Amino acid sequence: xxxxxxxxxxxxxxxxxxxxxxxxxxxxxxxxxxxxxxxxxxxxxxxxxxxxxxxxxxxxxxxxxxxxxxxxxxxxxxxxxxxxxxxxxxxxxxxxxxxxxxxxxxxxxxxxxxxxxxxxxxxxxxxxxxxxxxxx
Length: 136
Known about the structure:
alpha+beta
């Protein structure tokens, strides 16, 4: 037997193995998603819209999402990407609600490298004296 033929057959077998494995994982993920898609669940669509699932029509492959109170979107059922878990949604809302504001750092008044320029173009140091414009 030709060694090249053996290598090609082995690569083909590995490729087929990974194809079956990937399709099995994808099918399991779809089944998990379908079991979590119940009315009242918070979902995210493929185009990034978050909403509460109101109903799913299996025959027409449509889902009704309420994005804001009174706003209902009719989308294709397969555009629902994932069901948002409560702890993940709470962590995201906490992260967006908290704004970190850095407090200004104290500037050493003895440093000569901090200058401000006044409206008339004169450079002033931190202590208000005219800054040295000469080359050091």
